[in-house]
Amino acid sequence: MNAVPRLTFLKVTLCLAVFRDFPWRKVPVFIMAQIVGAWIGAMLVYANYFHAINIAEGGHGARTVSGTAGLFSTYALEYMPAANSFFDEFVGTMTLILVVFAVTDQRNGPPPAGMVPLVIFILILGIGAAFGMQTGYAINPARDLGPRIMTAMMGYGKAGASCFMFRNAFRADRLVMCEVFNFRNQYWLWCPILGSVCGGLVGAFIYDALIFTGNESILNRP
Fold first, then answer.
1. What sign for the dihedral angle of Cα 27, 31, 34, 40?
2. Which of 34, 76, 108, 112 is the most exposed place for a label (fewest CB within 10 A)?
3. DSSP 3-state of 116
4. Is the dihedral of CA 157, 159, 162, 167 positive or negative?
5. Angle, vertex CA 137, rays to CA 132 and CA 142, nearest 5
6. Which domain holds residue 39?
7. Any stretches that span the bilayer, and where are they (predicted)?
8. pLDDT tens, 6-57?
C-alpha cells in the first residue's frame, strides 16, 4: 500500500490494519499523528486569518459555530436529518477507500509510479464536488477532530469566551461544554467519525470481496 494514503487518512490506517496486516501496535501512533497534524494545520490557518475572522464574526472575541467554525471542521446544513448526514459521510468515505485500494493494488493495473497522489487528489476533488455541499465531506475523522479541538480551545460557541485565552485553552470544561462538541447531539462523533469509519470499512470489504486476490486480506485466507 502506497505510503501517501496510509500516512494521511485515519480510516485508511484502520482499513489497512483490518484488511492488510498493518501492525495494530502502530495504529494509535498513526492516528495520533494525523489528529495532531490536523490540529497544527488548523492553528496555522487560524493564526493567519485571525483578523479576517474577527471581521467576519462581527467583533473581536466573537467566535460562533454558525459563523466561521465551518472553516475548520464540518457541520451539516440545517435541513439535513441525522440519518442522511451519516449516509452522506458513509458513501463518500466508502467511495474513497474503494478507489484508494484499487489504485494501490499492484495486481490490478495500478497507475504509473508517482501518479497515485495525483489520482487521489482528483478523487477527493470529485468527492467534494459530489458530496461536499450537505455535510462538508469530512471523509476523514482526523481532518475533522483535530480542527474541532482547536476551535473548542479558541472558544467557539462558548458564551462569553475570549477568542484567545491560552491559559485556559486546555481546561476540560472549556472543551466539553463548547458547542462545537454539543452541536446537534454530538454530531462530531456519529457523522465525521463513525460515518467515515463505517464507510471506509465497508468500502474495503467490498473491494476485497469482489476484486482483491492477495492473501494479505482476511477474506482471501484459507
1. negative
2. 112
3. helix
4. negative
5. 155
6. 3-210
7. 29-49, 86-104, 116-139, 145-166, 187-207
8. 445 677 888 999 998 889 999 999 999 999 999 999 999 999 999 999 999 9
